[in-house]
Here is the input.
Amino acid sequence: MAAQLPLFADAQADPALAKAEFNTRQAELRTALLRAQYEQLSKEKQSLLIVIAGIDGAGKGATINLINEWMDPRHIRTLAFDRPDTADQTRPPMWRYWDALPPKGKTGIVFGSWYSLLLRETARKRPRTARIERIALAIRRFEAMLAAEGTHILKLWFHLSRNAQSERLKRLLSSEQTAWQVTPNDHKVHKKFDRLCLAGSMSIGLTDRAHAPWHVIPSADDNLRSIRTAERVLDALTRPPARVRPDPQVQPPARVVVTDRLGLPQSAEPTLSKDDYDAQIGLWQGRLAQAVRSDAFKSRALILAFEGQDAAGKGGAIRRIANALDARQYEIHQISAPTTQELARPYLWRFWHRLPRHGRIAVFDRSWYGRVLVERVEKFAAPSAWRRAYGEINDFEAQLAANGVIVLKFWLAIDADEQLARFKAREHSPFKRFKITPDDWRNREKWDAYVRAANEMFARTDTPLAPWHVIATNDKRTARLAVLKHIVLALENAC
Amino acid sequence: MAAQLPLFADAQADPALAKAEFNTRQAELRTALLRAQYEQLSKEKQSLLIVIAGIDGAGKGATINLINEWMDPRHIRTLAFDRPDTADQTRPPMWRYWDALPPKGKTGIVFGSWYSLLLRETARKRPRTARIERIALAIRRFEAMLAAEGTHILKLWFHLSRNAQSERLKRLLSSEQTAWQVTPNDHKVHKKFDRLCLAGSMSIGLTDRAHAPWHVIPSADDNLRSIRTAERVLDALTRPPARVRPDPQVQPPARVVVTDRLGLPQSAEPTLSKDDYDAQIGLWQGRLAQAVRSDAFKSRALILAFEGQDAAGKGGAIRRIANALDARQYEIHQISAPTTQELARPYLWRFWHRLPRHGRIAVFDRSWYGRVLVERVEKFAAPSAWRRAYGEINDFEAQLAANGVIVLKFWLAIDADEQLARFKAREHSPFKRFKITPDDWRNREKWDAYVRAANEMFARTDTPLAPWHVIATNDKRTARLAVLKHIVLALENAC
Here is the structure.
């Protein structure tokens, strides 16, 4: 049956390549590949990801050697993924792929890629359609994001016909020098050949996009396979990036939020006396400590994102949380300007890189929302980049939630007068002066632009799975208690 | 009994600190700490590691908050280690500490540090002296290496007397607001108090060095604890680095190796015909494939380091090995000039960072021996740095071997005439030209200096656990087979 799949028909029609022709083409391609590789390196604008898939025994492994031999291997990394280990299992499935992304200018060969799960599902005797759709959608979103962020994606499917596969096995088994190349898996492939071809064909059909195209490589003849592979890689390195057509992403309905001054009804809450505060804070910290020590939390994780105007009291609120926790259980991430290492990858990379594993807590003092706040207002990101970020962020948080991570987002809000008072107090303290920089004063002048950005952010990213909590912080004590309460209630509710 | 340990006597004598005095000292210290921190940052020459240990409940956790509040938290990372997880367990015990080292300019607070093992051992009812000596020696070597590479190490032991500890428990348990701070572990501490103090005292005694000093912090009074901690941190940030006095390290007896031209008796081996080679290579590749698929290999790992003159055929030999392996099982690391990220850490960091886990293979195309080869000859490393590297490398490889890693090191040697012929052939090939750079010609002029460096390297680092194999490579086929054979025999012998 598989032999009739139209996708693979061409691959089988190709004739073998004679030695002399191979040698000529090889010399041309290697020269061109090296030139294209150095061109990519010198620009540092794009990276290339070559996804390797196909029938076992069709030469996927040999292709790694080929690419490393025909190009300059110092700038190529093989990213080979086996079964997930504990580190992978206690994070969302895409975590390990994010973590391994090569920086701009470099090339990555991906083996055992994000297609493993899709191929496994499509190769089942009874494929579960809804699951397949869901996995394919996640892949398409991931690849669209990578492409939009400057990654060239090339996906190669190494194909063998059923006859070619069985001839290969026979040939290898006939000699002691080659028999070891046949693994138990090869026999399994032979038995399930039609299903594997169908799985490949389905997976390709669901994920073939102009910005992340699939190519079928005829693999019965080694020479032809090498040349076709090299041609595809060369084409990907030299072709201008295709326009990205993303799938629709999680977009929550726009809600109306707070006031357009982000001032909040600060005066509505009476300020809290020191005694009342002391009496309450210990109790809430105690409940927080209990909740994260619970057995149920061992299969969850907690991510807290703090945003808000300068001097709104993020640091103070975070320390009150940290006080209730064991140092081995949490990590606080201060997010400021990205490093060169971070700039060379898609902007969410630095946050994927810092994901807590199950049973742990990560606190972000400023977060991935920088993309739609400071990067938008200061024009560090192009409008097209921050506009698509809302969907990407919702997708990111949905993946976290699906993995059992509790995501809470806090906007700490003060009014302009209170901010001014705090800025002045900081300037007068010899050891708080460092907290206030010319940037803070500049940001203050852009108060209205930040308000607009924050309001759009609330409207677009306040999802049931990762809600925003806007906290009035003119009264620090009330604010700290409010943050603690939200965390405790979310944890007690979930664990 | 513990009360009489002289180390802790002073800590108990200290009186509590009154609020007014605390406030004055606090303001002074915070101002000075910030200044010292920015000074360290601007120089990017030193990092500071603050190791936190001591009696549970003495305020170790609170100290993290303190340091983050009193200094600029954007440049501080808490490195908190819990029980080892799978990723840690399949590598040498020091792996996770290496991996987490902060870059120069930054400060790391280490919690659950490399002292955990020593403290557990010294706190046993019947401490095993030999084990304790061995762990303490490993710690001293590690810290000496860090200090020599520009890390300021400060170790703080938070001490409470037995009475203060039991008073603390009583006080906390008396109120619902604080009772949660008492963990089951606190009661255990109370029972084993004397043993824990003795363990601390022994551990401190065995590892107190001028370049990595211990300080006991009196912790019964919160104010006093905070001030003493801040004083120590300030002192570490402002004091010039102490002279490092390393412990004696693994130094194998100097052996006489090959010739002083590194020419090797190339002619002694007859060149191998293509047919003979083809007949043999498949068999050896098959044995290699079998060996790494074996169950026994699942608790081992294989590290191959390739060094040798330019054009000696490292890449070709490595590809013949890779051909026998599953892409998911191995990784090839091309080692060239270090990145800024790598330069900001001790030089072995980039290799620790790339260690394979059990069941995996890492191939290094050039390796940590660059320190005593190119860095020595080109004067990238000071003589004191590359001289101490021999011992550090032996120590590194001994840790690998102790963890079940098979380490094989290959020097591929050609003679000067053959190198010249290969250089010229490369220059004439449009797709091999990239392999030859002005650097290669320059290195060739320094042939004798490289020979001297290589000979000393063999003499000092050819250990039974990580032997050097010098392979004559004028005849490429013989050389590739020889490399394969050494690997196969070592694997078959070990697994």
Summary: The first strand of chain B starts at residue 47 and ends at 54. Chain B is about 50% helix and 15% strand. Residues 85 and 96 of chain B are 10 Å apart (CA to CA).
